[in-house]
Design brief:
The complex is a heterodimer of chains A (about 270) and B (about 400). Chain A is α/β, with parallel strands linked by helices. Chain A has helices spanning about 40-55, 70-80, 100-115, 135-145, 195-200, 210-215, 250-260, and strands at about 5-10, 15, 20-25, 30-35, 35-40, 60-65, 85-90, 120-125, 145-150, 155, 160-165, 170-175, 180-185, 205-210. In chain A, helix 3 packs across helix 4 (about 135-145). Chain B has 3 domains: about 10-130, Acyl-CoA dehydrogenase/oxidase, N-terminal domain (Butyryl-Coa Dehydrogenase, subunit A, domain 1); about 135-240, Butyryl-CoA Dehydrogenase, subunit A, domain 2 (Beta Barrel); about 245-390, Up-down Bundle (Butyryl-CoA Dehydrogenase, subunit A, domain 3). In chain B, a hairpin with a 2-residue loop joins strand 11 (about 280) and strand 12. The longest helix of chain B has about 35 residues, at about 245-280. The chains are: A alpha/beta (about 270), B alpha+beta (about 400).
């Protein structure tokens, strides 16, 4: 049997949007919550990789960059069915911006590729916290690979990946040679629940940890200090105002219409 | 401080078990919870819908989850308990489906069946592509199953079953029934209770759905009639001889109930707390009144205590040292506690508490069944009495 082809899914550990949020005092870079999870938008990329694997001949590895807790994002992907995980973790990475992140991820992809080849890179369309959507493009640029973004459908035939991209005015079908960087939207599939067998099996799946030294990156190249666009201040938005309560004593409709007119809605 | 986990019991749950629980919680909330009030109100959950549910539950791995091999996930017993808790937080009917399939039917075949019986049924039951039911109780023999009238008469190498079974969850849609009957040898001499794996398409097997229930309305219950059901010799569960076998199956299911009812209680508490914080009377949320706060405190502590007890029993079961009497203690303590939480929640919700807009009265009605099935509260009281004094009061 032929060696399986290798897809690497890049995922992010993000704060749970349902959790309580607070801000770190020291550098204001990070929104902290008690709990984090695999970014929901990355679940679609994991699911797409798993469907590829189920079609036969693919091995799915998931990589994330982040502190120790970020291992939870890898574990979730392994529970869904991914074969292996790579956790890029280093004290010096704290506060790294998108440019730095893409440099680290590119080095990780090169190392992954050197160790057994990499036929496809999959990403979510954006992270659910920062929401910048730039990593796939930066990564493709750094790696010199084609970038095919916002796929709402994906298929692979031989050395060609074909995707569909839906925009407001048109639906495009785009082809690229492999390897390529592909980002997928939340329309592409319905991510599965991790099965119990998957959760049990995940405990035994390999997770490799890589430090900056493993990737040949100097600590000074990354982190808050090396950030091109550091966040200088973060403050909480004031809670939304109470609004106007109109008590309907028979004239409620008139009052509502007056309000809407005053706001130039009608 | 998490008002919904006052005692921080989440800190007692291992990561894998927590991950399993999260899947059940999400599945319950997304796939089942929106449909349950309608099923309950109309009592129209259909066999096809149960089959669909079973396949979904099976694809996750919930059916027979803590059994090993034969397509089962092989989780911890604690994880199974937590799954029951999350399922019953949706509805006791859903939890009952999983209890019967996993703890009664699959456990019976896994523990007492032949290798051929295991191979034939367990993978399909685990996948949810086959549904099982468990026939022990009869109309006149509930707490006293030893008196059952159903018989299994030996005829050559065959067995011929005769009798009726009552209150059988999923009885009218099951593909396979585990039937318990008094064995009678060819000379007409009664022998021990034996268990049989009965495909429900065997001639002489019939089931009638029981209607007019005002509890567990999102669950199908049936009466089984066995009219000369002829079975080959290999239909008997070889390792099950005597009443101890079916009772050990009930111990398994009962373990899930100790957790499950705390799911129903948590759901009631959660709804009551939300309601108390938003319902305004005398210009203040009713949560600001001391009487309501006392109720909320009682509910929060009861849910914490009951869940803590369940987790402790889970640890004992995982260590292999859990005693049947301890499971009885769990059911004895937790079902009435959950009922009390449901009733208190109902009072906080006032008039709204009696409608199906909120889950409270549905849980409350379901818990009346749970108080009685899998060993009545009275029987567990006497089991504990016997364990404490060494004097059985009912034999």
């Amino acid at each position: 049997m032929a060696e399986p082809r290798r897809v690497l899914v890049l995922v992010k550990y993000v704060p749970d949007a349902a959790g309580e949020r607070s801000f770190a005092d020291a550098d204001s870079t990070t929104v902290r919550t008690t709990e984090g999870l695999l970014s929901e938008l990355d679940e679609y990329a994991v699911e797409e990789a798993l469907s590829l694997a189920e079609s036969g001949g693919w091995e799915v590895t998931v990589a994330t960059m982040g502190p120790e807790q970020a291992g939870a994002a890898i574990r979730k992907a392994l529970q869904m069915g991914a074969d292996a995980g790579i956790h890029i973790s280093d004290e010096a990475l704290h506060g790294t911006d998108a440019l730095g992140t893409s440099a680290v991820l590119a080095a990780a992809v090169r190392k992954f590729s050197d160790e057994g080849g990499c036929d496809l890179l999959l990403c979510g369309m954006a992270s659910t916290d920062a929401g910048m959507s730039v990593i796939p493009a930066m990564l493709a640029e750094r790696l010199g690979l084609p970038q095919v973004s916002f796929a709402s459908q994906l298929s692979v035939e031989g050395d060609t990946v074909r995707i569909r991209r839906d925009s407001e005015t048109a639906t495009e079908t785009i082809e690229s040679r492999l390897p390529a960087v592909v980002s997928v939207t939340d329309q592409i599939n319905e991510p599965r629940y991790p099965s119990f067998k998957g959760i049990m099996a995940a405990k035994k799946k390999p997770v490799t940890t890589w430090s900056l030294a493993d990737l040949g990156i100097e600590p000074a190249e990354v982190g808050l200090a090396a950030s091109w666009s550091p966040v200088t201040e973060v403050s909480k938005r004031p809670p939304r105002g109470q609004g106007t309560i109109i008590t309907d004593d028979g004239e409620g409709g008139v009052a509502l219409a007056e309000f809407l007119a005053a706001e130039k809605f009608i | 401080m998490d008002a919904l986990d006052l005692l921080d019991l989440d800190s007692l749950i291992e990561e894998t078990d927590a991950a399993l629980r999260e899947v059940v919680r999400r599945f319950g909330a997304e796939r089942v919870a929106p449909r349950v009030p309608g099923w309950f109100e109309r009592a129209d959950l259909s066999p096809d819908q149960v089959r669909e549910l079973a396949v979904e539950l099976g694809s996750i791995g919930l059916l027979g989850m803590h059994l090993h091999g034969y397509g089962c996930a092989g989780t911890s017993a604690t994880a199974y308990g937590l799954a029951c808790l999350e399922l019953e937080a949706v509805d006791a009917g859903l939890r009952s489906l999983v209890s019967v399939q996993g703890s009664l039917v699959m456990f019976a075949i896994h523990r007492f069946g032949s290798e051929a019986q295991r191979q034939q049924w367990l993978p399909r039951l685990a996948a949810g592509t086959a549904i099982g039911c468990f026939g022990l109780t009869e109309a006149d023999f509930g707490s006293n199953p030893a008196g059952m009238r159903s018989t299994a008469r030996r005829d050559g190498t065959d067995w011929v079953l005769q009798g009726t079974k009552m209150w059988i969850t999923n009885g009218s849609l099951a593909d396979v029934a585990i039937i318990w009957a008094r064995s009678i040898d060819e000379d007409g001499q009664p022998g021990p209770i034996r268990g049989f794996v009965v495909p429900t398409d065997t001639p002489g097997f019939s089931a009638t759905t029981i209607h007019h229930k005002l509890s567990l309305r999102a669950s199908i219950t049936a009466e089984l009639v066995l009219e000369g059901v002829r079975l080959p010799a290999d239909a008997v569960l070889p390792e099950a001889v005597g009443l101890r076998a079916p009772l050990s199956c009930l111990d398994e299911a009962r373990f899930g109930i100790v957790f499950g009812v705390m799911g129903a209680a948590r759901s009631c508490y959660e709804v009551a707390r939300d309601y108390a914080l938003t319902r305004v009377q005398f210009d203040r949320p009713i949560a600001a009144f001391q009487l309501t706060q006392a109720k909320l405190a009682e509910m929060a502590v009861a849910v914490g205590q009951g869940t803590l007890l369940a987790l402790h029993l889970g640890r004992l079961k995982d260590a292999g040292s859990l005693l049947a009497e301890q499971v009885s203690a769990g059911k004895f303590a937790n079902v009435p506690a959950a009922l009390q939480v449901a009733r208190t929640a109902r009072s906080i919700l006032g008039g709204n508490g009696i409608t199906l807009e909120y889950p409270v009265i549905r849980h409350m009605l379901n818990l009346e069944t749970v108080l009685t099935y899998e060993g009545t509260h009275e029987m567990h009281t006497l089991v504990l009495g016997a364990a404490i004094t060494g004097i059985p009061a009912f034999r």
